[in-house]
Amino acid sequence: MDEREISQAVIARLPRYYRYLGDLKDEGVERVSSQELSELMQVTASQIRQDFNNFGGFGQQGYGYNVEYLYNEIAKILGLNEKHNLIIIGAGNLGRALANYMNFERRGFIVRGVFDNNPALYGRELRRNTVQPMEKMEQFVKEHNIDIAVLAIPKDEAGNVAERLVACGIKAIWNFAHVDLQVPGDIVVENVHLSDSLMKLSYGIAKRQRR
Amino acid sequence: MDEREISQAVIARLPRYYRYLGDLKDEGVERVSSQELSELMQVTASQIRQDFNNFGGFGQQGYGYNVEYLYNEIAKILGLNEKHNLIIIGAGNLGRALANYMNFERRGFIVRGVFDNNPALYGRELRRNTVQPMEKMEQFVKEHNIDIAVLAIPKDEAGNVAERLVACGIKAIWNFAHVDLQVPGDIVVENVHLSDSLMKLSYGIAKRQRR
């Protein structure tokens, strides 16, 4: 299937497959059927087969899928076989938390720099990085082959910073600012709107009470 | 429409409507048509009308919707007219960042306590709260009318802690642990799987490169 035609819903499910397959691999499981995966993940076996057929089916034969093969194939589709250099914009609470979070590095996402526009934070150490002034961002992106920028800044500043990032050649933005960014179509944007998520939670509670 | 029949996709779009309407309200805009909202939000006007019809349509008449009325109605549906007491489990990087993040309080989500199982962190101050030992969690939930627990702990511990939270009467879990929780159906769970989000970003970059 032409990759352009694969739906966002299928893509959004890949990390979850990857997570479950990683657990199975860690437990030493060698093969898994779509039925077993279905029970584990609480989705239908036919959905699993349909999802996998988007990528050629991953050669299920005889008894199910080879766990390690499937895990590695999904990793490749997700681009996890490549290392990514990222910078974090904003050294506030969230930016600092992300800069200190080790798990991303294990997956090949390496924090190369942290930037902020607050002089009081310049030079502050966050694991291997020190906070740098925003003026240095563009040059740093070019010199260090940065492909991902994490936006952990207020919504009012996000549009302007995103524009600057696009201009200096960034490929992808992981956006925690509570605003929808307007960027060219070839820039990959993934939003994490924590407030939206909290509102969905609040909706669930309200609905439960209205019953 | 019976609220049980409203799709998750519609619910997931409500916070975004709320965000745009809040911006319009702040700008002093009094009325907005579905067409204008459509251009602003880059979704079709017919989707907007369909979404709103799930909730009785919000009385569009003459020229569009009354912004403030619509904003307040969506707030009510989302349960944002009520205050929520929450606790944070895990005072690591992410837990601390969430405890220090002021914006949630503005929306009525008040952090009442922070818990961790690391004695080195006990007593540490995070804004108005100090980190308490996990053993005190159950009693605290009951005494302080806590309805939401935020799980900012490793995946291996999350299942056990979730069980304890359910047993002491929590209504909702905002889950940052990288695992799918198994909880009774009346417990509201909203997952924020940051690694999954980062993988989707990585997929976007890989796909761009495969073109």
Task: Give the SSE layout.
Two copies of one chain form a homodimer.
Chain A: H1 8-26, E1 31-32, H2 34-41, H3 45-53, E2 65-66, H4 67-77, E3 84-89, H5 93-100, H6 103-106, E4 109-116, E5 125-126, E6 129-133, H7 137-143, E7 148-151, H8 155-167, E8 172-175, E9 188-191, H9 194-210
Parallel strand pairs in A: 3-4, 3-7, 4-6, 7-8, 8-9
Antiparallel strand pairs in A: 1-2, 5-6
Structural overview:
The structure is a homodimer of 211-residue chains. With 211 residues, chain A is α/β, with parallel strands linked by helices. Chain A has two domains: 3-77, Arc Repressor Mutant, subunit A (Orthogonal Bundle); 84-196, NAD(P)-binding Rossmann-like Domain (Rossmann fold, 3-Layer(aba) Sandwich), CATH 3.40.50.720. Helices cover 45% and strands 18% of the residues of chain A. The first copy, chain A, has helices at residues 8-26, 34-41, 45-53, 67-77, 93-100, 103-106, 137-143, 155-167, 194-210; strands at residues 31-32, 65-66, 84-89, 109-116, 125-126, 129-133, 148-151, 172-175, 188-191. A seven-stranded mixed sheet of chain A has the order 5-6-4-3-7-8-9. Chain A has a two-stranded antiparallel ribbon with strand order 1-2. In chain A, β7, α8 and β8 form a beta-alpha-beta unit. In chain A, α1 (8-26) crosses α4 and α2 (34-41) packs across α3. The longest helix of chain A is centred in the N-terminal third of the chain and has 19 residues, at 8-26. Chain A is globular, with a radius of gyration of 20 Å. The mean pLDDT of chain A is 92. The interface between A and B is large, with 57 and 57 residues.
